[in-house]
Batch of 2 targets.
Target 1
Amino acid sequence: MREFEYVRAGEVGQAVAMVTADPETSYLAGGTTQLDLMKDGVLAPDRLVDITRLPLGGVTRDGDVLRVGALASMEELAADPTVAERLPFLREALLMGASPQLRNMATIGGNLLQRTRCRYFRDPAVSACNKRRRGTGCAAVQEVARMHAILGASEHCIALHPSDMAVALVALDAVVHLLGAGGSRSVPIREFYLLPGDTPDVENVLRHGELITAVEVPLLPPGARSTYLKVRDRASYEFALTSAAVALRIDGGVIGEARVAMGGVGTVPWRATTTEQMLEGSPPSPEVFAAAAELAITDPYVVPGTAFKVELAKRTVARALRTAATQGGPR
Amino acid sequence: MTTVEQRTGLVGQGVDRVDGPLKVTGAARYPNDFSYPDLAYAALVRSTVAAGRISRLDTAAALASPGVLAVITHQNAPRLERAPDSGLTAPPPPLQDDRITFHGQYVAVVVADSAEEATAAARRVEAEYEPAEPILDMGDPRAEWITDPWGTDSSRGDLKGALASAEVRFEATYTTAANSNSPMGLFSTVAVWDGDDLTIHDSTQWPSYLRKAIAQVFSLPEGNVRVLCPYVGGAFGAGLRAWPHIMLAALAARTVGRPVKLVLTRPEMFTGVGHRTASEQCVKLGATRDGRLVALAHESTTPLQIEGTQFEPCTAGSASAYACPNVITRDRQVRLNIPWCNFMRAPGEAQGNFALESAMDELAYELGMDPLELRLRNYSEDNPRLELPWSSKSLRECYEVGAERFGWSRRSPEPGSMRDGDSLIGYGVAGVSFFWYQEPCEARATLRKDGTAVVRSAVTDIGTGTYTVMTQLSAECLGLDMAHVTFELGDSDLPAGAAAGGSGLTAAVGSAVQAACRNLVRAFLDTVRDDPTSPLQGCTIDEVSVGGGRIHRIDAPESGEAYADILAAHGIGELSADGSSTPNDPKVAGMAPSGAFAARFVEVRVDPDLGLMQVARVVSVVDAGRILNEKTATSQIMGGTVGGIGMAMLEEIVTDPGTGRVANATFGDYLIPVNADIPDMEVAFVGRPDRFNSVGVKGVGEIGLVGIGAAIANAVHHATGRRVRSLPITIEQLF
Ligand SMILES: Cc1cc2nc3c(=O)[nH]c(=O)nc-3n(C[C@H](O)[C@H](O)[C@H](O)COP(=O)(O)OP(=O)(O)OC[C@H]3O[C@@H](n4cnc5c(N)ncnc54)[C@H](O)[C@@H]3O)c2cc1C
Ligand code: SF4
């Protein structure tokens, strides 16, 4: 790791000013992404501004909206009673991520900004990586890809957005609050992430120096049924091959509202809108779920190692829908 | 004299590890825990091509980096000699020329005041290569093939004829992935020169060999080198060679004139200390309708690095696993531009057993026979290859006890017929006949005037329990409380020790310890031979027994004398005796030396929609001869089982087909099981003391890993009707 300067920010404005002023300065929250990548030589900022002492923590409820401070930890959010009651699949998504040790360090803001696990991205000895350096090519497409995306991908980059939590947040239409040198703004999470196109190094709408201050999460309606299903190689402590975050409101034998998002398949957390459209107004039957899940994957970009995900993702969605409808009720 | 054959007292009991408190309190010092004043740190630079030559090395930026003391490359490294063979060719000394034979080969070592400075500077070494097209695929026509690499191929009867006329024939190809030893403890070397004397703290499994190797590499008398490894953070075979990084640490220390510490990074552990080779194996079986094997052919091809050797006999075990008159076993190796292949827990056996025991299962289904019954029907009462009786074999009992404990009779034969909700349930079985191995070993036992003993041998305890079982054995042989015995190991200055490998250490060092203790008792008898005041005067070793810190007459147990009293009476400070062991000769002994045997029973649950598999239960019944410590032996089988589950479900070194780079050289990418993947594991031991060594043991270090792959694959087939012939079995193959 290269030598760098470490600054602990005392207040929010100062932190934003410091990072905005210098392209070689980055924020440091829990450090579980940032420091890993620095140790591996992928990132080499001159300075880190530690934001963990800033007053950006806490989880508060305001009517039907949950306001989550950017510095709340994954464990803290998972333990929140409102989350357990009204956002159970968000809780599941959080608790199926990483390990307890990591979840106690990792923050919600950092989680949204975690970088891809693409092993070509994470090894600077590999020269071809458009995400690390635009225009160098994509080693993953050439070599062996598996933990990679099939949606929103192209020969420029097939890197997966690995967050579990973000999948649930995308299903929920959460809103990300940002503070920059020029003021604050709010961005719906579905507009927050950018498809890689031929600029995979640009992952979201965040401008350099902009700070995530909070995430607002609309609560599910009382009585909604939800689940997060994560399909992975080992039973714990591993990223998703495919996952699905599903929430259903079933009124009188008909699906009134469906929220379906997928992980493990997209270059960004992926909302399955066509699936939702088909579900809404239909009865919650296994046949409907299977047919709706078929629509979840359209125009995939696959390489040999990721081809299996097309079918697996559909089955994951179908199973999650079935589980939500039968077991995902209010607790 | 009482020996362990009578199974009294301490030996066998599941006593706690003597080193347990030290380990859990952090007081046990592993190689990287050692520090010295003025310690410098080394970091390695590795090649980023798999074949070719270094065309340019620019070290200026690294040299100018803060804290850097030296950058050593092939351009400025002194000439080093090649280490002697250990049975296997030693890796060539590093940095001797510009040739690259695998991705990850060391091209420079940077030495600095701190580990961080060394690492940062290592990234600044600029290397350019004149790459050659690497050979990475066993199908590459340029690859060099080696047939019968170790003379272990076998042939008996008329295989061709028997296959042609067999009532039932079966043939299939099986593959296993390359696996990484990757013990938790990163391999570390601390090298300290004092003039021409060199002390090395290292993660080795074999200090006696490493000392010889390092001495030869640096052209030193062997006595100038001391290797210390009292604690090793796991190794699984990775510590059985004199690896180049050890030499680089010593070289770096000599260059900068300071002690140097080198700790491999996790990615370096994947390229620098060997790995289990992948394998491609073909099994052909011929049988009668009623399930008697008439023909068995097992052929294997495994990759090998470009230079040097590796002993990886995947098929050798098949020659003696079953009673079958017509057998051919063949191993081949293919040289590729890959990192060094090396021993990993159950080398050859782990892969070979998967193929053979899967094929036996497939044959059972073809015959419509219970897979367990097929194995019993072809039970080899004698070793069919050597045509000698086994020194011990209770595999039949393993099957019987295992089937009973597992509830094998509850299995409904039809694949896919057992279900629980979304899960299909499958039962699988595999038998294991592990190889025998033993090396010469020496030990020394000393009794001190306070009546305590210290027993020593230059062996290692890589977490297996050697400290504990040798303390038990010594205490029993000398008739002392365990608290009064210390066992010392992990120091090449001690009597030459065997490697902690091949599941052969306990027999080797145990026999040497036994001999040393017996000789020590003799020495005491010699001391009192002419002492009229001693009740033991004139006694021979066969007339006495030991217990309670004293030697006494067998015919008159009250007549005896304490060790401490004898020493005091004769004004002796302490008394020592040496003992040694050499492996028995099968022909002289008139028996075929047995390794351990085992039956593995596995239940899996498969969600066929999503391809999710969970191992629900494992029952292992093992015949390992005499068990010296039920607890540590059980732990060995459990640990091996976890390794087996890893091999079966998760572990696979992925190599980039274009560059030969190991693509998943981190624990984030190379998956090993976590707790949630591990079911209840029941372990039971059966059998009798083995007759081939005086302690009666057969090793338990490796067998725990063997058979799990096949038992899981067989259970998957039973659950789903799907036959998976390649490991690891991943989600792609199951949904
Ligand atoms: C071994 C391992 C396993 C994991 N498994 C999973 C998993 O299964 N599922 C899953 O979802 N995740 C997983 N993770 C990822 C983990 O959730 C993220 O690393 C973590 O959430 C990041 O949060 P952090 O606070 O540590 O971020 P940091 O590492 O501190 O920061 C990450 C990035 O965000 C920036 N940043 C942080 N906070 C802010 C802010 N408020 N405003 C602007 N920029 C900011 C930093 O500059 C940095 O670029 C795993 C991580 C590891 C190491
Ligand atoms: S997939 Fe993206 S991150 Fe991975 S190597 Fe290709 S460009 Fe880089």
Target 2
Amino acid sequence: MLIPCPHCGARLSEEFVCHGDATRQRPAYDASDEAWTDYVYLRDNPAGAHREHWYHAAGCHAWLVVTRDTRTHQIIGVEVAR
Amino acid sequence: MSGQPFRLVSGGLVDRRQSLRFRFDGQDYEGFAGDTLASALLANGVRLVGRSFKYHRPRGILTAGPEEPNALVELRSGARREPNTKATTVELYDGLEAASQNRWPSLAVDLLSLNGLLSPLFVAGFYYKTFMWPAKAWEALYEPLIRRAAGLGRASGEADPDAYEKSHAFCDVLVIGGGRSGLAAALAAAREGKRVIVADEDTRLGGRALTRPGDADALAAMLVELAANPRVTLMPRTSVFGVYDGGVYGALEKVSDHLPEPAPFTPRQRLWKVIAHESVLAAGALERPIPFADNDRPGVMLAGAVATYLHRFGVVPGRRAVVYTSTDEGWQLAADLYAAGVTIEAIVDPRGAVAEAVQAGVVASGARRLIGARVVRALGGRALRGARVVDAHGQTVTLRCDLLAVSGGWTPNLALTHHHGGKPRWDEVLQSFLPGAPPPGMRVVGRAAGEGLAPLVDLPAPPAKGKSFIDFQHDVTAADIRLAEREGYRSVEHVKRYTTLGMATDQGRTANLNGLMVLAEARGAAIPDVGLTMARPPYAPVAIGALAGPHRGRDFRPTRLPAAHGWAVRQGAVFVEAGQWLRAQYFPRAGETDWLTTVSREVTTVRSSVGLCDVSTLGKIDVQGADAAAFLERVYINGWASLAVGRARYGVMLREDGFVMDDGTTARLAADHFILTTTTANAARVFQHLEYCHQVLWPTLDVQLASVTDQWAQFAVAGPRSRETLARLVDAPFDLANEAFPYMGAAELTIGGGLPARLFRISFSGELAYELAVPARYGEAVAAAIMAAGADFGICPYGTEALGVMRIEKGHAAGAELSGQTTATDLGLGRMLSKTKDFIGRRMAERPALTDPARPRLVGLRPLDPAARLRAGAHLVALADPADAAHDAGYVTSVAFSPSLGQWIGLGLLAGGPDRLGERVRAVDPVRGGPELLLEVCAPCFVDPEGVRLRV
Ligand SMILES: [Zn+2]
């Protein structure tokens, strides 16, 4: 699988670390128990387009948001997380 | 030796001037350059080459290519022995050695062929049925029996002496298959200026054209133009075995398999990862056998294979042939064989009619033409003697032959089009499956796309009696498939798994369609309704050695050496692997006979004078920016805003789930500049985590992170004489006095007359101690300079063992305690948890279960018997409780022999530990059977608990 890093170009997926679901927002300290449990533990596994965090560990060290079709592994979009 | 009696005097692509000697089952033979092992064996009249998987039936050569199910041999000898090698793909070389497999004591007399008499036991699903009961007989009796009786070749059992490489290649167009269609596609792309790679598993490019005498000239012109184009790479001996995501293709190049052994500095095989914008699949077509009873007798061959042996290798695989064909091509083969001097006994064609023009070609041969007839049984045992045929009128005819060439027509080779899950589509005209939804970027051309293929005709069903083999390699018969259907296995994927049809190393290339035909007939369904099994990577067998490539033994992963490694070698260090790092474990001296003596001496030297330890492997992260302190506040459990410039502080990080991730000391070198340290093991993980926090969680903070682990060599100088030692190195006016540079001080300074350095007054050992960091390239020199400066005081180098002993004596948590299951409170660090800020892990660390005082928490453990040796991993049980899992109260995490106390001590995690100081518990070790010990629970710090020595 190739991931087009905005800094480095298309690179093989072995250079990256996948960190999963990028749609979660870190709750405030005083948010509910449910919000924290959801953030730390619960993950959806959608069939289709999914936004994920990938870290270019063997490259530029950028955290990326990769939109990937989980059914086909097609990379639909890549942007830097920051 | 009679000099290749089945070789024609001329014709083919072999070089008759270049004779090659080879040996098969101990017999010497000769072949020619350009032969495969199979063609050379056939040229010598060798037709019995193996025994079958389950029934040990005699088997010959069925095909002329990688689809071969029968002719599997052990190639080479000794450590290079390679089992299950297809004789049809082995290029002949001088001195080649091969042996048949799965027979005992010899190929001709195989006593295990008695399995054939037991064949009722070996029907479909026999593993599940026969060996179900009693269960305990499985390991003792059935499995060894099956393993001995049913099987393939033997692995050498020795380390592979050859090298394997991995490479990447990039192109616009990857052409898979170097036949005419593939070469034409390559030429078209190359003429447009594209970068092209042509991969073909055969020794030479050309595909089927190599077996058709008339095609040679057209082929040669294409190859000349392609070879002259610098943007084209031709890769023969390379099989594309998998199509992966994003235009990545796996390919295996057999660099040296055609040589007795690889040339120096040359790999045996090379694993390619080809990254291609698009691909062209030109994998050709596969010939379908026609099943009949005993269709596995040596001498029964696919017609296309016979044509290959005749035209490419100049070999006739028999003297008297019957051609059994449902295609016009088979009639052409009969004519060609006759022209080569073979007697044609008969042509048997199951079709109702054959055009006169097609029949005309064989009139001269005088062969019987049995149209509308079918072969029902092959005759003979270890060699084919004839065939029994039922003609159009239902009369049985017995034919005499030593070669039975069979063709049920050709179907596209679709395997690679399935690799992304795409299903094939049924073509009514061709009566065949065609590529349906190939992987993105793949185009299918030539016969693989059905171009130029004749429509398939319905074949006669295999007879109800006798063994009509469908999958030769796995000994699956038509009866097995019918039985599976009767037992309720209706889905083609279920039948495949139940009968093992198509699951052998040939991926059922000659078996799948006929298996489908038998299943469809049994179900009374049409073939397209039954469906085709899904082919998955790898298309061709790939040796584990090729996948491992150079990453084996010491090269399994990179070895990282600290900058002062050479110095440690000269000091006589014994080294230990710590992750990728090689670290000095201890430094034995003459007369020291065991490691414990050495380590205890190193500890005692540090505690009484001074020692030097290379701590360069600790992770170092440079943190800069106006918000650097604010950033650290959010990633550490304790406070940083208040840390003064020139001071260091111990910090603990949690994961977001509230458990401890890592710890280390971080120093403030300027208002906006920190240098953070991590444990050796977690350096990469912590850096990735901090980048996540910065880039994803808080991108607006003005902070920059850089890993500088490799840029700085760092040495612990520890012991009461460490200040005096360092005083001889630091440049004036830097003042080492306790008041000027107190405990937890941090400074940038110069040493040795101008070398920039950083000095931290921090201590892992519990003694007065410093860590001195210098640019990595000065590491060796500075280590030597520290040794020289401390020589008067008896300085000694110490390694990771002494480091570990001293940290256990001081009760510092390390790897075994930072297990990912401990909280800061568990480790006695609860007081550090800030109540005034948010930080990673705070909220989840406050969950009731993580703050329960009854959790296993860090304690010191001291055996009551001072001579007893405590062992890490032993479990802790209260005195009154039985030693069972229900009463497990914790375990011993780390142990050391403490020279300071003169006995073994330990750290452990004990339920409610800090509330049980002074209590006695038992250490039990049932798994290893160690003796039960009585321990006293104590505070984890065994030496100088007030920390007086740190501050002197
Ligand atoms: Zn990158």
